[in-house]
Amino acid sequence: MAKSIPDHPFLIESLRQNPALSAAYITATIEEIDPEPELLKLALGDVAEALGQPKMTPEQYEWHLKRLDELLSQQGNDAIYNLGTWLNALGLKLTVAVCTDTEDHTANAEIRSELTV
User: Fold this and answer.
1) What gap in Å lies between CA 15 and CA 27, rounded to an integer?
2) Is 90 exposed, middle or buried, given 0-12, 13-18 or 19+ CB atoms closer than 10 A?
3) Considering Cα of 31, then 97, then 88, then 8, what sign does the dihedral take?
4) Do residues 87 and 49 lie in contact, with contact meaning Cβ atoms separated by under 8 Å?
5) What is the reported pTM?
6) pLDDT level of residue 117 (50, 70, 90 thresholds)
């Protein structure tokens, strides 16, 4: 029987090779209709591993991951601004885009307003 190939190394290498894929991975996680906070932490950690490890010292990388835990426990404006700063260190930025799908945006806004960053 053939052994399965672990997907985590493939994911990290894919994210490392294509920062736009890293941004899309985070965006898709944030846009989940029924979000699970642990999935966001996992996605951000994967992106940090892919984009941060190659350009940070091991100490900087560990501090960056520790900072992620802190900022995900924050509420309000500080959480948003600190997430933006955290992403900038990885070469990414936090953006807002216009919805272009045909879903009922009001219903989605009500669902998403319950999500705490």
Assistant:
1) 13
2) buried
3) positive
4) no
5) 0.79
6) very low
